[in-house]
Structures are given as C-alpha cells and as structure tokens.
Design goal:
Helix content: 40-55%
Shape: globular
GO molecular function: catalytic activity
Bound molecules: ligand C2E, magnesium ion
Organism: Microvirga brassicacearum
Distance between the termini: 53 Å
Order of helices and strands: HEEEHHEHHEHEHEHHEHEH
Largest sheet: 8 strands, mixed, barrel
Protein name: EAL domain-containing protein
Strand content: 15-25%
Length: 282
C-alpha cells in the first residue's frame, strides 16, 4: 500500500513538473511575443506622503497583455529572469517611464517622480547606468525623477558590480529604494553601508501590524531606518487601522489599496492634478 502510494505521488510529482515546464515554455513564448508586439503595459501606483497627503511619486508596475487577458508580473518576471528576457523587459520599462515622464511634463505635470523595479540581472549589467543615463538624456528628464527599486536579495552577498552601479547612479541624481524590506537576508550591520535612500517595508509586515507583536516589528523597522537616515515607505496599506499605526510610529510615506491600486495612465491624471489622495472609504 505504502509502495503504491509512494509511486502514485512520484507520478503525480513528475506530472506536476511536466505541467510546470509546459506552463513555463508557454509563458516564455507569450512573453517573447508580447515584447515583439509591444503588448506590455505599465500601471502606476501612487505613493503618498503621510504628513501632507501629497502624491510624492508613482511606482511603475509592468503588465502583459495576452488576448483579452492581463497577466500579472508575479507570473512572468521570474520566467523573464531565467530566460534572459528580463533585459528586454527592463529596457522597455525604462524607455516607457522616461517617455511618460516627458509626456506628463508637456501637459504641465512637471517634476513627477517614478519608481522603477529593477531585477538583479539588470542591475548587474556593466551598461546599466549608461543605459539609464542615456534614456533620461534622450527624453529630457532629470535623473532625480527616477527611483530604482531593488530587492534585498539583490544585495545580500557582497555584489560589487551592483553596488558600484547603484553608487554611480546615485551620484548622477537617481535615488535607490530597498524593496520588500525585511523579507530578504541582508544583515543589519550591512544596511548602513548600502547605497540606498529609502526602505520599503514589505506588505507582509504591514498586514500583520494589527497585532501587538506585528505592530512592534513595524515600529522597530521604522526606527531603524530613521536612525540610518533613510526614508521609510510602507507597502500594501489596506486599512485605516494600519494607516493610523503607521502615522503613530512616524512612517514617512505609504502605498496601498487604501489610497489607490496601480492605475492606468488615463485614470491617473485626475489624481495627479488634484495633487493629493485621501484614503478611500473602506
Ligand atoms: P513590488 O515591487 O513589491 O510591488 C508591489 C506589489 O504589491 C504590486 O504587485 C502591487 O500591485 C501590489 N500592491 C500594491 N498595493 C497593494 C495592497 O494594498 N494590497 C495588496 N495585496 N497588494 C498591493 P504587482 O503589480 O503584481 O507586482 C508584483 C511584483 O512584480 C512587484 O512587487 C515587483 O517585484 C515585480 N515587478 C513589477 N513590475 C516590474 C518591472 O517592471 N520590472 C521588474 N523587474 N519587476 C517588476
Ligand atoms: Mg517595487
Ligand atoms: Mg515591494
Ligand atoms: Mg514584492
């Protein structure tokens, strides 16, 4: 019986693997086609300063259009990284963001800031800083209008090339945020030496901040970041209670469905012209 069970689960496992492999190959083909046909799309999620309610910047989040469907980056970014397609995606994102910033500035929305998510593979490339600088120059926008979001795992081991690239970019005026902070493995002693301006507290901590312990963890992260002179952004703020706590402990900025989901450009302009965002009724 045990044996049959064992074989059954082996078979299941291998079928699941085939299924996984098929899906990956399928997704890679879809992604390739989407890049070729420019079926990628950016949505922008506002980031709000707690003290003023002003929108301080927008996070660019990529989506893939396939048929009538919109595919989330959680389903294709990993595949893009593993297949090497991420450099094409990354390049497209940089170009689109610069073009959009330029277009906004032409309609009177000047000095907006956008955050771009950057994969480790992208950040590691020798030509990464040159590519970014060239794009900003070509589109006539300021490096200070762009923040680069990198995840902790990008920086865990001493990765000299990435650190050097980021340092160079900061000298040129770009800012750098550490995304999903708290979920990686970066040692706290290393944190003050990283070339970063901002910590983005991962959504999981914000979600758990309602409990006594969870609230204490978020407060400790805010205190640590502030002690190191970093700006603090809380990701994934969904409730008024979370917002109240973040305000109490002195978090600088928030992002989340309580204010706005990632939005298409046409839905953003009203928000941007109004200047601020109040929490949506929940
Ligand atoms: P991330 O950079 O941490 O982005 C935040 C994610 O949380 C986004 O998911 C956003 O839609 C979602 N989110 C925002 N507010 C809330 C909230 O209040 N509640 C909940 N439940 N979720 C919220 P999305 O757009 O699916 O992106 C997922 C991840 O994909 C991103 O995580 C980022 O790591 C990656 N990604 C997105 N765009 C790009 C890109 O252009 N390049 C690269 N390399 N990665 C990207
Ligand atoms: Mg991000
Ligand atoms: Mg994040
Ligand atoms: Mg994330």
């Amino acid at each position: 019986d045990v044996k049959r069970n064992g074989r059954g689960s082996y078979q299941f496992f291998s079928e699941a693997m085939n299924e996984g492999a098929r899906e990956r190959v399928g997704m890679e083909a879809i992604l390739r086609q989407a890049i070729r046909n420019e079926n990628l799309e950016l949505q922008y999620q506002p980031r709000v300063r707690l003290s003023s309610g002003h929108v301080t910047s927008l996070e660019a989040l990529v989506r893939l259009r396939h048929g009538g469907e919109q595919i989330s980056p959680t389903r294709f970014i990993r595949i893009a990284e593993e297949s090497g397609l991420i450099s094409l995606v990354g390049h497209w994102v940089i170009e689109s963001v610069c073009r959009q910033l330029r277009a906004w500035s032409g309609t009177g929305l000047r000095n907006l800031r956008v955050s771009i998510n950057v994969s480790p593979m992208q950040a590691r490339r020798e030509d990464f800083s040159a590519t970014l600088l060239a794009a900003t120059r070509r589109h006539g926008i300021c490096p200070s209008q762009i923040e680069l979001e990198i995840t902790e795992s990008t920086l865990v081991e001493p990765k000299q090339r990435i650190t050097a690239n980021l340092s160079k970019l900061r000298e040129a005026g770009f800012t750098v945020a550490l995304d999903d902070f708290g979920t990686g493995y970066s040692s706290l002693s290393y944190l003050n030496r990283l070339p970063i301006d901002t910590l983005k507290i991962d959504r999981t901590f914000v979600t758990d901040s309602g409990s006594l312990e969870g609230g204490a963890v978020v407060a400790a992260i805010v205190a640590l970041g502030k002690a190191l002179g970093k700006g603090i952004v809380a990701e994934g703020v969904e409730t008024q209670e979370q917002l109240d706590w973040l305000r109490t402990i002195g978090c600088d900025e928030v992002q989340g469905f309580l204010f706005a989901p990632p939005l298409e450009v046409r839905d953003l302009e009203g928000v941007l012209r109004a200047g601020g965002l109040l929490p949506r009724d929940t």
